Q: What sequence folds into this?
């Protein structure tokens, strides 16, 4: 179904909500990862990592609450985007929403992996029954699971972003160059995430940061455009 009439007030309101939901929720996850947990994970030193997490249990728990706030923001984002873009093509909007919900499931699994790490590091009963070497091995296993969960989820996030960007292009609600950048950056992220899961050595060819940064820049650009300019009437 294609757009045949003007933009409704509910679409304009939902667009503003989506434009706020993404940067706000993204701020939660960035601060949780880099501002709160960043100093607790010591590269190449699992013993020190376990020690630091055990000594900062409340900080670690709070960072997981921030992860859940991020997930909540994405639920709001999905609902708002569906309201804005379903009049363009309801089936594609539904597919994009379901794909992003799958990503949210993987984000919640990451929270569970973080809780496992915290219990192993902070609960003395595990140290007494398992020993330091086994504790460190289990922490390594759960941290590896974190990355696996993220990149599996990234496939679905990037796929949903590709579909959303295509809907933005068809709707003409935003400038065509911005929508095209969204399509290409999101499709690129999908390709990179799949290639990395098939062959982790792909990270030596394309830096991991180059997978999703272009797509995230598109999403920030989209949010900024909507907040400043709003939706454009399709011609």
A:
């Amino acid at each position: 179904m294609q757009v045949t009439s003007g933009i409704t007030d509910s679409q304009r309101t939902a667009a503003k909500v989506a434009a706020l939901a993404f940067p706000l929720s993204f701020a939660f996850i960035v601060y949780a990862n880099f501002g709160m947990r960043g100093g607790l994970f010591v590269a190449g030193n699992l013993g020190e990592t376990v020690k630091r997490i055990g000594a900062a249990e409340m900080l670690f728990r709070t960072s997981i609450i921030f992860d859940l706030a991020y997930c909540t923001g994405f639920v709001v984002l999905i609902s708002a985007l569906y309201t804005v873009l379903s009049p363009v093509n309801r089936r594609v909007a539904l597919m994009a929403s379901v794909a992003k919900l799958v990503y949210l499931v993987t984000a919640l699994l990451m929270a569970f992996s973080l809780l496992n790490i915290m219990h192993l590091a902070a609960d003395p009963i595990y140290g007494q029954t398992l020993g330091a070497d086994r504790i460190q091995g289990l922490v390594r296993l759960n941290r590896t699971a974190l990355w696996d969960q993220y990149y599996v989820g990234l496939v679905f996030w990037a796929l949903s972003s590709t579909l959303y960007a295509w809907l933005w292009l068809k709707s003409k609600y935003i400038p065509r160059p911005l929508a095209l950048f969204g399509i290409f950056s999101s499709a690129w992220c999908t390709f990179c995430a799949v290639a990395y899961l098939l062959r982790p050595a792909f990270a030596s060819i394309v830096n991991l940061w180059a997978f999703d940064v272009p797509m995230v820049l598109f999403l920030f650009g989209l949010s900024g455009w909507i907040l400043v300019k709003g939706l454009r009437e399709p011609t």
Summary: Residues 132-171 form the longest helix (40 residues). The mean pLDDT is 94. The helical segments are 9-36, 46-55, 57-85, 90-122, 124-130, 132-171, 176-198, 209-229. The chain is about 80% helix and 0% strand.
